[in-house]
Amino acid sequence: MIIDKVLYIDLSRKSFHVESRSELFEKYLGGTGVAIKLLLEECPVKADPLGPENPIIFAVGPLNGLFPMASKTVVMFKSPLTGNLGESHAGGRTASAIRLVGYGAIIIRGSSETPVYLAIHGEKVYFRDASGLWGVENSYTVGRVLRELEKGAGFRTIMRIGSAGEKMVYYANVVVETYRHFGRLGLGAVFGSKKLKAIVISGKNSIRVKDANHYRQVYDEIFHLAIKSSLMKKYHDIGTSSNILPLNELRALPSLNLRETSLKDAENISGENLAEKYLGRRVACSHCPVACIHLATLREPYEDEPYFYKTTMIPYDYEPLYALGSMLGITDPNGFLRLMDEVEAQGLDAISTGVTLAWATEAYENGIIKDSDTLGIKLRWGDYNSYREAVRKIVYQPNEFYAALAKGVEYAASKYGGLDFALSFGGNEMPGYHTGIAAYLTFLTGSRHSHLDSAGYIIDEKSAATGKKETLQEIVENLFKEESWRQVLSSLVLCFFARGIYTPKIVVKSLNAAGFEHVTEEDLRKIGVEILRNKYLFKTREGFDPNGLRIPRRILEKETPLGVLSEDLIRRGVEEFFNLIKDNKGLKDDFRIFS
Amino acid sequence: MLKRIAVIDTEKCVGCQLCMFACSRRFGEGGLAKSAIHVKSIGGVERGFAVIVCRACPDPPCMKVCITKALVMRKGGGVILNQSKCIGCGKCVEACPFGAIFWDEESNKPNICTHCGYCTNYCHYNVITLKEVDST
Question: What is the distance, to the nearest Å, from the Cα of residue A351 to the centroid of all Cα atoms in its chain?
Answer without folding.
Answer: 10
